[in-house]
Amino acid sequence: MKRIICEGPNRLSGEFFPQGSKNGALPLLASCIIFDTIIKINNVPDIEDINTMLSILICIGCKCQYVNNSIIIDSRQINNYEIGWELASKMRASFDLLGSLVYRFGKAVIPFPGGCLIGNRKVDMHLWVTKQLGFEVKIDSGNVIVSDFNPKHANEEISFWIPSVGVTKNATFLGLFVSKETKKKIVFHNIAIEPEITNLWDFLIKNGLNLSYDINKRVLQIFPSNPQFDSLINVDNIYDRIEAGTFAIATCTTKGSILIKDNDDPNYSLKIMLSKLWELLSLIGTEIKFDKEYIELKSHKPLSSFEISTDVYPNFPTDLQPQMVSLATSIEGMSVVKENLFDDRFVYVGELLRLGADINVVNNKFAIINGGKILKGAPLKATDIRGGAAILIAALIAQGTSIITNTFQIYRGYEKIVEKLSKLGANIYEEAEKVLEATNIY
Asked: Which of 348, 396, 360, 406 is nearest to 375 (CA)?
């Protein structure tokens, strides 16, 4: 494994080209299971979570080819509805395959999910929805076993108690199966409406699946369909709004300037998908300009402290909360960050304290940051994908050398992050992690 060495302080400046969305590519990959044909997905980031998902798909019988950020998947010979624990333990998104496997086989065996240790992310609503749709659900030896669909027990209208992204993805595929089998409409209320979800629905609709959604009412309707697929389906992945937001926040933290590549898509441009971030950064003093192809961001003046509260889309994203805490350490005054979605998302704060940050976490819900303190380089450990990004941002402004280990967590979500930061002027590089040799102690 590589470790990251950062010499600070740094000021970022230059042009930034966002990667394809991690959270957008994963449900598209999961959807390949339901298509008995060949699918090409373009603009897919070369990151650990994507490689793990491809390994899982190969293990269940798919043929996969990954070249120049495009993936070609042939699911025509898929022959296995069981996912092994070793791969599933590496990321939570493996659980997103439950619905698509059930669509293909009428049953599935999925281990409890792994991934980031950012709190108790339960699967109880996944299981509840699956039962509500008429399936038998058992838990055995750490596996969730879905089988024995009974149309008499299938509810046609279901309301989620929270708009969960993962549940919405699985419910989509489960609902498509149930609607196909029962010839009835299935309706879900209080669904998640993140761009990565609506992009999945747009893809399914374009390729013959009969569903509709209303983002204002948070309603998904699924109708009976049995589409005939072409020999090759092409789909373009959207930009990664979290990666783009991370680099924007890093630029503000280092008092730099950046030109972010964008598009003018009315639904999936970074201008639209990150509107809450741009509002906040502008409010605290960042200069931001938009045109059709770029977002220009300058942060040369002192910024104001702030208060934010995370919530489901379109509100402020939890996946940018850790990065905002790092930004707050660079701003004079007290900032407050509230986390509403995960119960242990502040696990990374301990690493920021090692740099000299003044942060007080209250009941795992609030972080109170007394900013403007001088940070000094230190040995650091990436705790999770977004927490790892926050640690890296703080290292950029710390005086001296910071050495970040457990970088696997960062590489799960960010493609060539060290190379990109280096091109923006950061004094940062990678090297092989040193292995300590055991010695005899008497």
From this structure: 396
For residues 53 and 186, give the distance between their C-alpha atoms in angstroms, rounded to a whole number.
Answer: 28
Residue 247 and residue 217 share a domain: no
* CB 364 within 8 Å of CB 327: no
Q: Angle between the 97-105 and 124-132 helix axes, to the nearest 10 degrees?
A: 30
Q: Is residue 440 part of a domain?
A: no
Q: Report DSSP state, residue 91.
A: -
91-125 pLDDT, tens digit each: 666 788 999 999 999 999 998 775 444 444 468 89
Q: Pull the structure tokens for residue 338.
A: 């509230």
Determine the Cα–Cα distance for residues 357 and 397; give it in Å rounded to an integer. 11
- Which residues constitute the domain of residue 75? 22-223
The DSSP H or E segment spanning 360 is strand 359-362
Q: State yes or no: is 62 an active-site residue.
A: no
Distance CA 239, CA 42 (A): 11
Q: Are 284 and 398 within one domain? A: yes
Taking the whole predicted model, whether its pTM rises above 0.90 is answered as yes
pLDDT grade, residue 439 (50/70/90)? low
pLDDT for residue 249:
98
161 DSSP assignment:
S
Decide: 176 and 103 in contact? Cβ < 8 Å.
yes
- Number of domains, the chain: 2
User: 3-state DSSP call for residue 231?
Assistant: coil
- At 145, which helix (H) or strand (E)? strand 143-147
Q: Which of 223, 255, 284 is the last residue of a domain?
A: 223
Distance from C-alpha of 205 to C-alpha of 212, rounded to nearest angstrom: 8
- Active-site position among 32, 62, 116, 252: 116
Whether 354 and 208 map to the same domain: the answer is no
Residue 169 backbone dihedrals phi, psi, to 5 degrees: -65, -50
Q: Omega before 111 cis (within 30°)?
A: no
Last residue of a domain, one of 223, 251, 278: 223
Total Cβ atoms within 10 A of residue 206:
10
Q: Token digits for 175?
A: 């609902």
